[in-house]
Design a protein that fits this description.
3 helices; 60% helix; Homeodomain-like_sf; Homeobox domain-containing protein
Length: 67
């Protein structure tokens, strides 16, 4: 994932620790010409790191803005 998109993902995660829905993660990735599996893995790594550090994450998902 290019650095510009990693920065965008980090800002999204910092603003909202919920997991975006699978369909919105896919749409977000495709809008940026990224592979959806890379974006999914990025979010799952963040989720795993948070759990490992004892951070309780909300269970609900949300729609990640594509724009």
């Amino acid at each position: 994932i290019p650095p510009v998109h990693l920065e965008e993902l980090a800002a999204i995660w910092d603003a909202d620790k919920r997991m975006p829905s699978a369909s919105s993660r896919r749409a977000w990735a495709l809008a940026r010409r990224l592979r959806p599996d890379q974006v999914n893995n990025w979010f799952y790594r963040k989720k795993g790191a948070a759990k490992k550090n004892g951070i309780v994450l909300p269970r609900e998902t949300y729609e990640l803005p594509v724009g």
